[in-house]
Write a structure and sequence with these properties.
This protein is mainly alpha-helical. It is about 65% helix and about 0% strand. The radius of gyration is 20 Å and the shape is elongated. The N terminus is likely disordered.
Length: about 140
């Protein structure tokens, strides 16, 4: 969290904590979404090409897909923050308020919720990836 201008030395208001939560959750949502969807697509592509030729297990291909997703995340990590920060509301917390328990808990919990929801939504490629046998999509009766 970058330094934000603020005048209060008392505890953050509910409005400030709500803005802080959004500021923390949205970038984490985007990260979780991109990380999971890239990992699934890359893992599937690796499994159907390199994995088939080298006899790699599905988990090994998923791990390699995770390498691709994590590398992509590292290379583009600041881009998400740079794009989102100007459009997200500024909670205007003083440095003292940023160090308060309520602000730290809001940042951590909103970030965790953002990543969880982003990862779950990032599972959407599973709707389009064809599996084999018990690992695939359920077949219509």
């Amino acid at each position: 969290l970058t330094q934000m201008s603020g005048h209060g030395s008392g505890p953050p208001s509910w409005a400030q904590l709500g803005k802080l939560g959004l500021l923390s959750a949205l970038p984490c949502f985007v990260f979780g979404f991109l990380d999971n969807s890239i990992m699934l697509v890359a893992g599937d592509a690796i499994e159907s090409s390199l994995g088939a030729k080298l006899g790699l297990s599905g988990l090994a291909c998923a791990a390699l897909g995770n390498v691709v997703a994590d590398t992509t995340g590292q290379l583009s990590g600041s881009t998400v923050d740079t794009v989102l920060r100007p459009v997200l509301p500024n909670p205007r917390l003083s440095p003292a308020q940023q160090q308060m328990r309520a602000a730290r808990l809001t940042t951590a919990s909103a970030g965790a919720v953002g990543i969880i929801i982003g990862c779950l939504v990032g599972c959407f490629p599973l709707l389009f990836i064809e599996g084999d046998g018990a690992e695939g999509k359920p077949e219509a009766a």
